[in-house]
């Protein structure tokens, strides 16, 4: 994007130059028409840009945060921002109507190149809503009466939310009682999506309510929502609960699962690789079998005399309840007995991914079966006996 | 039984003929002078003075007597107190007797006190005062908040922060207006100690109305109403009474304002003591 920037930069500088000359000429007492209002505006804007509140650095925000902003002040800031945006678009030679935030950022980085390493210290021009934190307006009218019926509690939004949620719980329980009285009640087991959504965290709730909360308040609220979601709700209550849930990207979806391969007899098999410390393993898991594991041509009982290593091999199958159902053939090299066992375990788990459902893959991932153990041997440092062990300290 | 004879100490507190001085700020504001004291123009101040003085000329302007009877209090189990061991010494005048170890509250006295309390509440609501319903019983929290919301007033049934009334400019805002009346549906908090707001309201000169059970201390409450605060029917009855009274008073205020505005400043008010009950009680079902 260098060429267009340079060209519009040249045009902009030409325009700036022109504007400067025109305004200078006007100072000698020429006519002031309405159309020239834009030029004077440009001059004012250019002058203002030197100490403009619209283009602020993030550093000032922390100092500004302690003040309270009136509604008029924020409105004025928004007007100034919009006018400044249009002037910036004119300067860059672009259409003011379709000047987006990315264009503004690009223009500012072009016009005010900064060599500062801290990104937040560089000049920015953003909408005042993003710069000034959201504030509470005055909570009462002219006669002094507060607007909200829970104003005198101090935490009106939080308590009104609790009131609303509890009201919904009572309503649902009342409906249940009515159904039970008529004999139409049926115990429906509630199935909620276990993976993929979470309750919103305390900071998000604070931001939503524009109020400070304590940990106990937050815990109470979540408990009440859990209670509400455990009851049979209809669409309105589900929507209410849904307002406080956020989606969580399911990590295992990013994990690519190999499709099953088939050998000459038509039996399904799958391969997987695993690493642990310096051991490398490659495992082939067959679809049907009776739990035989062969490592480097040797049975696993002979290769791993220690029970602990055999338990490591067993873990992925035990987790998926497929203990005697698969045959494994694997090769391993490097490392010691424990790291070889860990490497084979990882390889087998990865190979098993092709045989199971996505939910089970996610559960395996959460159990830690699909993660390469990043621990490696730490180097020895000079002046010390080992990686951490220091030489014996002698007093004299 | 005239209220003056039974409760001499309350003579000056309730029905007073002289209206509040116009120059004084309406309500209690802290921190600075009244917000825009000269809201209404000069000729309007006569109107407002007339409107405000009108209810004070009648003993029961809002006809609160018809809202309840001793029978309806009995049916709502208001007379049931706690066991004799929980009795508070200062509640002894209000207790009728004790039956199988359970104290019974004298409903005749309750009726008198309740009538005074409801009348006072109505007057405060008529004058546009802020009413705060306070309770710390979790069982009735939702009911009380709904009651307060439905009559356009305020509720506080949650954890009461220390300096809420005494340090209000810091906790609630610089020029906040404090409540003009606090109604306690439960005078005790969850550990059976007197609610902090009772003492704080007395400190801040805020009148209080409170339902006092046999284990409560009625001392600092301006208009105590001896009665049961633990049974759901009793609490529901009290909530309903307060709601009716506040709504009725506000409705009456609106009616009087409209009437006087139509008539102009001079002219005697056509309202008489029986009419308010008839007019305002259109939607209210009479107590049995």
From TrEMBL, chain A:
Main location: mitochondrion
Localisation per UniProt entry: Mitochondrion
N-terminal signal peptide: none
Family designation: Belongs to the universal ribosomal protein uS9 family.
Residue numbers spanned by region Disordered: 374-396
Any one of the GO CC terms: mitochondrial inner membrane
Alphabetical keyword list: Mitochondrion, Ribonucleoprotein, Ribosomal protein, Transit peptide
InterPro entries from the UniProt entry: Ribosomal_Su5_D2-typ_SF, Ribosomal_uS9, Ribosomal_uS9_bac/plastid, Ribosomal_uS9_CS, Ribsml_uS5_D2-typ_fold_subgr
A Gene Ontology BP annotation from the UniProt entry: translation
Source organism (scientific name): Ovis ammon polii
Protein's UniProt name: Small ribosomal subunit protein uS9m
GO molecular function annotation: RNA binding; structural constituent of ribosome
TrEMBL record, chain B:
Domain of life, source organism: Eukaryota
Name under which the protein is recorded: Small ribosomal subunit protein uS2m
Primary location recorded for the protein, binned into one broad class: mitochondrion
Region feature Disordered, mapped onto this chain: 18-44, 262-288
Organism: Ovis ammon polii
CDD domains documented for this protein: RPS2
Keywords for the protein's UniProt record, in alphabetical order: Mitochondrion, Ribonucleoprotein, Ribosomal protein
SUPFAM superfamilies for this protein: Ribosomal protein S2
Role: Required for mitoribosome formation and stability, and mitochondrial translation.
A Gene Ontology biological process term: translation
GO molecular function, one term: structural constituent of ribosome
Family as reported in the entry's similarity comment: Belongs to the universal ribosomal protein uS2 family.
Annotated GO CC locations: mitochondrial inner membrane; mitochondrial small ribosomal subunit
């Amino acid at each position: 994007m260098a060429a267009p920037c340079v060209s519009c930069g040249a045009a902009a500088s030409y325009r700036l130059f022109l504007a400067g000359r025109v305004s200078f000429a006007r100072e000698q007492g020429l006519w002031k028409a309405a159309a020239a209002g834009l030029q004077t505006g440009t001059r004012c804007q250019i002058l203002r840009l030197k100490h403009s509140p619209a283009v602020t650095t993030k550093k000032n925000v922390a100092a500004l945060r302690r003040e309270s902003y009136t509604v008029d002040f924020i409105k004025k800031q928004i007007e100034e921002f919009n006018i400044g945006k249009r002037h910036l678009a004119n300067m860059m030679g672009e259409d003011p109507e379709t000047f987006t935030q990315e264009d503004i950022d690009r223009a500012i980085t072009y016009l005010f190149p900064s060599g500062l390493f801290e990104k937040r210290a560089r000049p920015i021009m953003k909408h005042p809503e993003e710069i000034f934190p959201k504030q509470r307006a005055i909570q009462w009218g002219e006669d002094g009466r507060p607007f909200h019926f829970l104003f005198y509690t101090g935490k009106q939004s939080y308590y009104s939310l609790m009131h609303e949620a509890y009201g919904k719980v009572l309503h649902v329980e009342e409906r249940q009682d009515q159904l039970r009285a008529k004999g139409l009640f049926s115990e429906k087991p509630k199935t909620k999506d276990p993976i993929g959504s979470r309750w919103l965290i305390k900071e998000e709730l604070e931001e939503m309510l524009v109020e400070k909360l304590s940990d106990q308040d937050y815990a109470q609220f979540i408990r009440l929502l859990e209670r509400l979601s455990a009851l049979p709700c209809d669409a309105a209550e589900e929507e209410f609960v849904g307002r406080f849930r956020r989606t969580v990207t399911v990590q295992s979806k990013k994990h690519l699962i190999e499709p099953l391969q088939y050998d000459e007899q038509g039996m399904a098999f799958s391969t997987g690789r695993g690493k642990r410390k310096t051991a490398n393993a490659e495992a082939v898991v067959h679809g049907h079998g009776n739990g035989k594991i062969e490592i480097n041509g040797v049975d696993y009982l002979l290769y791993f005399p220690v029970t602990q290593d055999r338990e490591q091999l067993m873990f992925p199958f035990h987790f998926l309840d497929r203990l005697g159902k698969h045959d494994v053939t694997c090769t391993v090299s490097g490392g010691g007995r424990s790291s070889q066992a860990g490497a084979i375990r990882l390889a087998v788990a990865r190979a098993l991914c092709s045989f199971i459902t996505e939910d089970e893959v996610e559960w395996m991932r959460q159990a830690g079966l699909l993660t390469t153990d990043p621990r490696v041997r730490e180097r020895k440092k000079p002046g010390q006996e080992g990686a951490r062990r220091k030489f014996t300290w002698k007093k004299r | 039984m005239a209220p003056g004879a039974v409760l001499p100490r309350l003579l000056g507190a309730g029905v007073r003929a002289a209206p509040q001085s116009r120059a004084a700020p309406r309500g209690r504001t802290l921190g600075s002078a009244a917000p825009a004291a000269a809201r209404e123009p000069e000729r309007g101040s006569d109107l407002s003075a007339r409107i405000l003085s009108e209810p004070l000329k009648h003993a029961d302007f809002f006809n609160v007597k018809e809202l309840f009877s001793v029978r309806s209090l009995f049916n709502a189990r208001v007379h049931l107190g706690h066991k004799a061991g929980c009795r508070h010494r200062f509640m002894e005048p209000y207790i009728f007797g004790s039956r199988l170890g359970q104290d019974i509250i004298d409903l005749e006295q309750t009726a008198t006190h309740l009538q005074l309390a409801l009348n006072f509440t109505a007057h405060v609501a008529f004058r546009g005062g802020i009413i705060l319903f306070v309770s710390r019983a979790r069982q009735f929290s939702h009911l009380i908040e709904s009651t307060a919301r439905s009559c356009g007033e305020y509720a506080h049934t949650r954890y009461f922060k220390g300096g809420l009334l005494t340090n209000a400019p810091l906790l609630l805002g610089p020029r906040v207006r404090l409540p003009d009346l606090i109604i306690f549906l439960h005078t005790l908090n969850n550990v059976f100690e007197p609610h902090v707001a009772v003492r704080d309201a007395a400190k801040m000169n805020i009148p209080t109305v409170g339902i006092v059970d046999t284990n409560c201390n009625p001392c600092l409450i301006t208009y105590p109403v001896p009665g049961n605060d633990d049974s759901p029917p009793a609490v529901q009855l009290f909530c309903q009474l307060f709601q009716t009274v506040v709504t009725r008073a506000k409705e009456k205020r609106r009616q009087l304002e409209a009437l006087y505005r139509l008539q102009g400043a001079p002219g005697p008010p056509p309202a008489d003591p029986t009419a308010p009950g008839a007019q305002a009680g259109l939607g209210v079902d009479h107590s049995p």
